[in-house]
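BUG: 3D viewer hangs when loading the predicted structure for this chain

Environment: internal workstation, default settings.
Expected: structure renders.
Actual: progress bar stalls at 90%.

Input used:
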Amino acid sequence: MSEEKKGPLTFLARLEDGVLILILVSMVLLAFIQIALRNIFGIGLIWIDPLVRQMLLWVTLAGAMVATRDHNHITVDAISRHLPPGRIKSAAGFICDTFATIVCALLTYSTFRVFHMEFLDPVGGHIMTGFPLWASLLTLPTAFGVMTIRFLRFSILSLLHTIKGEATP
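Structure tokens produced before the viewer hung:
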């Protein structure tokens, strides 16, 4: 996101970047502490391993959200890179972005159902003592929901460029 853009989207982008960095740094520090405890003292903290595994999921989802924010995600559109700029290339972008929107929307729905079932479970699972499974599962529909909205935005922009006969920036 360019520096001249100000407002709530810039704040959200910085917040998103900050959360990603915080999770990644925390994950590395916790793993280092666990390794040091095991190698130096022959002990380990039982809660670090499951937390680091959850943090891996969180950092992956946060990274995917950051990548989709500016349309810098991995794409599988081998044909569009060989198309000339203009209406046809914009239409190909519209098709790809619409497909990504549908996939992310389905993942949002599916992961929300899993979260909801776990939330309603009276026994409920736990990642570790005091940390319910549903709290971790909430990150899935949240991340996929954000990506759905972003892909929908890109899809609409591609459609508008296709209609105008312009190249998608």
